[in-house]
């Protein structure tokens, strides 16, 4: 949620992305659902068309903005080199200059590609990888979607879902009745394109896995990297679910696709038991060293139930039992008894009008009027505030929708939109009351976490290195998943491993 992007709600830009939705091809952590496809290697495109190039060029700056901006510098240049190397193996073009490969400044594990030669991977997903071959595998998988023309096969589904998926209101899916409360937390602004990627069929995902393996072989990489990076993704999703207390919920990318275990087995079998090729592990670790891990303070930082934005000088705390997901344009707050979103919109100095506008934006995306019974004024820790609640009949029963807004300056306001079962709107009262201003000294103390590649010294162990992870919980589990290790793994002096530090 960077300050440069949230001065006003950018519906116009998002609508432009909606117009491009039919051509977007990508993966929410390399997963999705819907559409048609078979598991065999498909017939693929043999060139990048002029129309695809135009569409990609138009969408490129909007997608970069939607996913936190582009990382620049040596790390991004390295990812670009690897991405272009694998992309030319697709046969779409033999000119590396025809492809644009971008490392995105996002803490979400994600990768996608746009027709026209545009390929993207987030820094968070890159940090999870163990070697260059895995980076090539992920990017090759995404290029495979483009080469296999999967976008054309999912146009009808994308048309039906473009308003919900791209405009991405945290409430629209519930009000339209196409999603339960359990899905609400997925609908944050930063994940509009991610939601659009949840359209590929099981067969199409397997096709892209197979194409990615083909590209790995052509480029000389170890083709087993497709299976190992899928394994890391599955383990990371499982860890995040356990840490959030949602271990009984299957991640959406996995629930609508071949289950992670079978997908890993299929990828390894496709690569072959005697597969070989370069992994370039040391080169990869050297180039990925120092990348920001988790939230970028420029977008605000989630730490447990607390959210602090040093640039905007604000902070709040989620209710007990809830967890947060930070996005480039909003923060989602998720729990069993309700869901919420924190975001902003254009502000003219009238807080009551701002609250009404927030409700009206929900009506525009739904099929019924969402109108508060009344709007009340108050102050929260010295901040002028206004709020209202509307009772709505949704596809999942009667719910209460609350908008709680705060005036931080004459031209700047922020608000929560919260949803709960009827009669339970007070679930979020503690969060509404926790909003506060952040002092300059507190803001300056907020530091990013970074990936740090270290060399194992004599006497060091998995547990001693894990104790250096910049977290106050699950240090060992985080270290093991980050390095594709298990609790019984032994480390050798001179071996390189990843840790997360400040």
TrEMBL record:
Its cofactor is Zn(2+). The keyword Protease applies. One of its GO terms (biological process) is proteolysis involved in protein catabolic process. It comes from the Bacteria. One of its GO terms (cellular component) is membrane. Residues 1-23 form the signal peptide. PROSITE patterns: LYSM, PROKAR_LIPOPROTEIN. It holds the Pfam family LysM. Residues 452-499 form the LysM domain. InterPro entries: LysM (IPR018392), Mito/Outer_Membr_Metalloprot (IPR051156), Peptidase_M48 (IPR001915). The keyword Phosphoprotein does not apply. Keywords: Hydrolase, Metal-binding, Metalloprotease, Protease, Signal, Zinc. Residues 34-55 are annotated as: Disordered. One of its GO terms (molecular function) is metal ion binding. This is Putative Zn-dependent protease. It comes from Novosphingobium marinum. The lineage of its organism: Bacteria, Pseudomonadati, Pseudomonadota, Alphaproteobacteria, Sphingomonadales.
